[in-house]
Task: structure prediction
Amino acid sequence: MLDVSRVNDWVGEKILFSSARLARTYSPAERSAMLPSYFISAMVPMLRNPDAWRLRVDGLVAAPLVLSLDELQRMPRVSYTVKHHCVEGWSAIASWHGVPLSAVVERCRPLAAARYINFVSFDADYSNGWDLTSAMHPQTMLAYGMNDNPLPPAHGAPLRLYSPVKLGYKLTKYLVSMTFTDRRPGGYWEDQGYPWFGGI
Result:
């Protein structure tokens, strides 16, 4: 089973994925009535002191960053309404807004050896890794808003990774750090046999 997963990953990453291919967008009127939420903790993860939250950006970068939510909100903003795809087979349409991940990548200036990013959550230390090419896709964002409102706790507040070109388990919620590395990181579900690339 793991061998099949690795083949699917290779096909998805090397053959099917294109940074120029954009996911279809929808109008806000087409939003689904509900988008299910999942987390690893027994209860919805919540910060004891939300004002103290920071996103740490480190690893193989020339300029490590520690960013507050206010600083992220002052960076360039992107928004779109897209279909969310779960590995379990369901999908739902929602609107998201936040900062393009590429804007954070450009600010921290990854070193030449950096090929991957490890994203870590405060939801029971949930994590997963992305290749840098996927991270730079124009629809990949760090989302702090959903359906024209601040991101709700059940969907990853204060900040989550989002992209319509990846399956839901790749979209780390409750984000606290992103570390650039030259080695492909594992991940909570990936280490249990889920496809690493997780593309749509």
The first helix runs from residue 2 to 16. Residues 1-5 have pLDDT under 50 and may be disordered.
